[in-house]
Write a structure and sequence with these properties.
Elements (H helix, E strand, L loop, with lengths): L8 H15 L4 H13 L6 H10 L3 H12 L3 H11 L5 H14 L10 H4 L4 H14 L5 H9 L7 H14 L3 H8 L5 H15 L5 H14 L9
Helix pairs in contact: 1-2, 2-4, 3-4, 3-6, 4-6, 5-6, 6-8, 8-10, 9-11, 10-12, 11-12, 12-13
């Protein structure tokens, strides 16, 4: 009979406690190392602490490392925790959960990406939802997703609009009909954004700012170079 080697639970518990403490440290570099340690030696008992820290962590690089650490854990442990965060009152909790779900890439969570998330009033949440949706949407849902994303054309500043355009580019062919329709919408901001996105869809390497400028000229002057009627 082979000898049974006991697990050193004292060492495991002490490491767990150290990581928990470091995740809440005032110094961002200490928190970054703690998140790295959590992902390097993934432990299911850390999942709650990692998810909770995502909701409050102010440093971008630490948040990204927290996401990486969560992707290292079994999906059956992380997915229920992250889905629960999607209904949080905290915008950062929703945004980070969406970001992490997009990195895990399990399409089983697609039904949790609701219309309210895609239209979330918080721009960062909406941007995360758009990115997650194009990754997680099943093929048969992509046409409907394109239609839903089209309702957000013209929204926000440059960064928000660029995020939406990139989502359409990632969708590819299903985006074309809704963008064609939006390109003749009554709202000039919608038309400009739709036309810029169409240009990016044809040439993903084109600069967004140049595409926007060209689209705005089309909106202002009309396709034949004449002043567009109101």
């Amino acid at each position: 009979m082979s000898e049974v080697v006991p697990i050193n639970t004292t060492h495991r518990n002490s490491r767990y406690i150290r990581v928990l403490g470091a995740l809440a440290a005032p110094d961002a570099s200490t928190r970054l190392r703690a998140a790295l340690a959590a992902g390097t030696h993934p432990a299911p008992e850390l999942v709650d602490a990692l998810v909770q820290r995502c909701a409050t962590e102010p440093d971008f690089f630490v948040r990204d490392m927290l996401t990486w650490a969560l992707t290292r854990l079994p999906a059956q442990i992380t997915l229920p925790k992250l889905r629960a965060e999607l209904t949080s009152d905290c915008a950062q909790a929703r945004s980070q959960a969406l970001h992490t779900l997009s990195k895990i890439g399990d399409r089983a969570v697609w039904p949790a990406l609701t219309r309210s998330l895609l239209r979330d009033p918080d721009d960062e949440v909406a941007r995360s939802a758009w990115r997650a949706a194009v990754v997680l949407a099943p093929e048969e849902e992509k046409d409907a997703l394109a239609g839903e994303l089209a309702t957000q054309l013209g929204r926000g500043d440059r960064e928000v609009q660029l995020s939406l355009s990139r989502a359409f580019v990632a969708l590819g062919e299903p985006a074309e009909p809704v963008l064609d329709a939006a390109a003749v919408a009554r709202d000039p901001a919608v038309r400009a954004h739709a036309n810029a996105t169409r240009r990016l869809l044809r040439d993903p390497d084109a600069g967004f700012d140049l595409a926007v400028d060209a689209a705005r000229r089309v909106v202002a002057l009309g396709p034949d170079g004449e002043e567009a009627a109101c």
